[in-house]
From TrEMBL, chain A:
It comes from Paractinoplanes deccanensis. SMART domains: HTH_ARSR (SM00418). This is Transcriptional regulator. The keyword Lipid biosynthesis does not apply. PANTHER family: TRANSCRIPTIONAL REGULATOR, ARSR FAMILY, TRANSCRIPTIONAL REPRESSOR SDPR. InterPro entries: ArsR-like_HTH, HTH_ArsR_DNA-bd_dom, HTH_MetalResp_TranReg, WH-like_DNA-bd_sf, WH_DNA-bd_sf. Residues 1-100 form the HTH arsR-type domain.
Automatic annotation (TrEMBL), chain B:
Residues 1-127 form the VOC domain. It holds the Pfam family Glyoxalase. InterPro entries: Glyas_Bleomycin-R_OHBP_Dase, Glyas_Fos-R_dOase_dom, VOC_core. CDD domains: VOC_like (cd07263). Coiled coil: none annotated. This is VOC domain-containing protein.
Length: 105, 133
């Protein structure tokens, strides 16, 4: 099974530890402003990331479909979306891989 | 040199005075007509001789886009000390105040962010020892 461009975006997004921390924080409390995400990275993880750097990380996560941004009046909130993760590793876990595991036992 | 005043740019001085007194609990200190607006300040009842907050009209053309850009990213314009962020959050929510950030604990600091209805986000913060009793 070949890797789709969308899956490649997800792997790229997850490869960065700072982006994984952003997802950790959104998993703890979903729906955060950019300011709250920056505060959490600075105060909880001692990451000296600029607001612009965090904004760029959010763009990568958005492109991968791992977060969604929601506008509510003048505010903008970011939400985690784990849908792209659901079948991400099926190609290694399903079908052939399972048969091989059975054969070796 | 001493800091005696700081300001928030508000879209309407009467609305701002109502919010900063009725909701937040500050008290009016000065109200002097200046041109088409007023020099309008509030202070904390816990520190009536302390730093004043000027409710300054956002009439300058640069003020509105500046405010909108901060709100878009959820950035508070300034920060007020409270004894208990969770208690203030519940009290203000009960008065209909909108929060863009619920109380968040980070080490010994707790913060929350609210909308002042005049175009600004305001942070409330508690940290032990931050303000002298």
């Amino acid at each position: 099974m070949s890797e789709t461009a969308a899956e490649a975006e997800v792997f790229k997004a997850l490869a960065d530890p700072n982006r994984r921390k952003i997802l950790d924080e959104l998993a703890e409390r979903d729906g955060q402003t950019l300011f709250e995400i920056c505060s959490r990275l600075t105060m909880r993880h001692q990451l000296g990331l600029s607001r612009q750097a965090v904004s760029q990380h959010l763009d990568v996560l958005l492109r991968a479909g791992l977060i969604r941004s929601r506008r509510e009046g003048r505010y903008k909130f970011h939400h985690i979306d784990t849908t792209p993760l659901e079948h991400l590793t099926d190609r290694w876990r399903g079908g052939g891989a399972r048969e091989n595991r059975c054969a070796s036992t | 040199m001493r800091i005696y005043v700081t300001s928030v740019y508000v879209d309407d001085q009467d609305k701002a005075l109502a919010f900063y007194t009725d909701k937040l609990g500050f008290v009016k200190k000065t109200e002097v007509p200046v041109g088409e607006h007023r020099w309008l300040t509030v202070v904390s009842p816990d520190d009536p001789d302390g730093c004043e907050l000027l409710l300054e009209p956002d009439a300058h053309p640069a003020a509105k886009p500046f405010k909108a850009a901060l709100v878009d990213d959820g950035v508070p314009l300034t920060s007020f000390y409270v004894k208990d962020v969770h208690a203030e959050y519940e009290r203000l929510r009960g008065l209909g105040v909108r929060f863009t950030q619920e109380p968040l604990q980070m080490g010994d600091i707790t913060t929350a962010v609210l909308d002042d209805t005049c175009g600004n986000l305001i942070q409330i913060i508690h940290k032990p020892g931050l303000v002298k009793p």
